[in-house]
Write a structure and sequence with these properties.
The chain is α+β, with helices and mostly antiparallel strands. It has one domain: Gcn5-related N-acetyltransferase (GNAT) (Aminopeptidase). It contains six helices and seven strands, in the order βααββαβαβαββα. The longest helix is centred in the middle third of the chain and has 20 residues.
């Protein structure tokens, strides 16, 4: 097995056998990833094994309401809504779990969010956790739940940037 690097989804990637164990994430990959990528709604980045996708994440611009944001994100008179970068989905196939692919995808996504914010702005990275397990996972990466919805979590771009620099990622 020789996994690819992380690359943009294209027509050569096979999605039909992707199964991460969470039906909503499987369905998004099968039914929306190509369309969202083609229409510019989401950039979908994948890792594959000889063309078969084994892990992916989606990136998109987004906004959050100031009253949802933790204090660290809404300081300094932010606009309403607050611009952010959204990691919309992230999943690894069952067969490839436990190999560090998910961590690699998260680190790549965080790097891309910081680079994007340097170009277009953005106060935070936001994720929408699909379930309590995902909420705990994002919290382990330093994400803080929104004040009004525990499945929406965020971390300031500044904090992510400092963390990446400190960890040498």
């Amino acid at each position: 097995m020789a996994l690819s690097g992380i690359e943009l989804l294209d027509d050569a990637h096979r999605l039909d056998s992707f199964n991460c164990g969470k039906s909503a994430l499987n369905a998004w990959m099968a039914g929306f990833a190509r369309t969202n990528e083609a229409r510019g709604f989401t950039r979908v980045l994948v890792i594959h094994d000889e063309g078969t996708v084994v892990g992916y994440y989606g990136l998109a611009p987004g906004v959050i309401q100031p009253n949802s944001a933790p204090r660290a994100i809404r300081t300094g008179r932010p606009p309403d809504p607050i611009p952010c970068l959204l990691i919309g989905q992230l999943a690894v196939s069952h067969r490839h779990a436990g190999q560090g692919i998910g961590s690699g995808l998260v680190k790549d996504a965080l790097h891309r969010c910081v680079a994007s914010a340097d170009i277009v702005g953005g106060r935070a990275v936001v994720v929408r956790a699909i379930d309590a397990e995902a909420e705990r996972n994002w919290q382990s990466w330093g994400f803080i739940p929104a004040r009004d919805n525990p499945s929406v979590l965020m971390r300031s771009i500044q904090d992510v940037s400092l963390w990446l620099a400190d960890k040498g990622h």
